Amino acid sequence: MNSTEKIWNRRFILLFITNLLVLAAFYASIPIYCQEIGITGSRVGIVLTAMSVATILFRPVAGYLLDNFNRYRVYLVFLALFCLSFSAFLAFPLFGALIVVRLYMGAVYSVCGSATMTLAGDVLPAAKITEGISRFAFTVSIGMAVGPYFLVVGMLVSKLSTQKVIDAGRHRMLVYISLAVLILTMLSYLFLNSGIHLLAAGFFFGLGYGILQPLFQAFVTGTTPAPQRGVANAAYMLSYDVGIGIGSPLMGFMPESIGLPLGFALTAIAYAAGGVVYLSYVDGYYRRLRQK
Q1: With contact defined as beta carbons under 8 Å apart, do 233 and 65 qualify?
Q2: Do the Cβ atoms of 142 and 214 come closer than 8 Å?
Q3: Separation between Cα atoms, residue 183 and residue 188, nearest integer Å
Q4: Do 181 and 204 contact (CB within 8 A), yes or no?
């Protein structure tokens, strides 16, 4: 390994750790904090959705900033701004104020979150981008799971057992297997009747999601030229924002209407629809890009 590759590896590791810590703190804190100050039910969904709305609106700005200015400086500025927002939870423990704070966090995170994936692609050698991003994107999964820890074992197992298959370029099989696992897991909520079943469902959900999320991120970053990588990552992560923005209020209202077991089971429809889209369009498009 030459000196340049060592520098790349060092920067990649630092980005990996930073992204993991930020996301772990963020995803662990919000639902617990809402519960502590008496925000429950559908109002939790509203708080969670507020950030998604702001993030969706600011993703195009994120792509522009990352592709037209120094990406490291942009990342550091917006990371600092994002971290400052956590102090506002102590100063404004009210439902209305919390929505404003979450809107601010969404605007800042739209840049900060897009920057991490873009910078990770920049510091990796061209031949290692797909493999490296697959590993790096795993920080998002772990960051979301460390708080409920509702997922982390399954994610770790999925990553350790499938990374060699991903490195070998055998993506299609993994996508179909993980989608099948997710669909069956969500359908099993219809029969949820014990704590063991709940833990098992969390494990298998982490298993499936832990494969898909890093894999799709690697598809995007690994097939995009460096000058357009900021816009590409921002556009791709817009799908996260829209999904969270739709899912958060739905899951907030479901306990009051149809109940969570049926609500979770219905999400299997979304996974099935995603599989159809992947089979009919995404897989062929990705293969054409890889050949170029």
Answers
A1: no
A2: no
A3: 9
A4: yes
Give residues with Cβ within 8 angstroms of 120, minimum separation 6: 12, 15, 16, 132, 133, 136, 221
Distance CA 100, CA 78 (A): 18
Give the span between the Cα atoms of 57 and 227, in whole angstroms.
Answer: 22
Closest CA to 121 of 46, 238, 225, 199: 225
Sorted by where each begins, the domain ranges of the chain are 3-291
Question: What DSSP line would sit under 9-34, residue for residue?
Answer: HHHHHHHHHHHHHHHHHHHHHHHHHH
Does domain 3-291 sit in CATH 1.20.1250.20?
A: yes
Structure tokens belonging to residue 55: 């993030």
Sign of CA dihedral 37, 41, 47, 52: positive
Q: How does DSSP assign 54-83, residue by residue?
A: HHHHHHHHHHHHHHHS-HHHHHHHHHHHHH
- What are the tens digits of pLDDT across the range 90-131? 777 788 888 888 899 889 988 988 888 888 888 787 777 877
- Tell me which residue of 161, 139, 165 sits closest to 152, measured CA to CA: 139
- For residues 289 and 223, the answer to whether their CB atoms sit within 8 Å is yes
> Are 49 and 57 in contact, with CB atoms under 8 Å apart?
no
Residue pLDDT, tens place only, 18-75: 766 666 666 556 666 777 777 766 677 778 788 888 888 898 899 999 999 999 899 9
Q: How many residues does the chain have?
A: 292
Amino acid of residue 56: I
> Residue 273, exposed/middle/buried by CB under 10 A (0-12, 13-18, 19+)?
exposed
Whole-prediction pTM value? 0.70
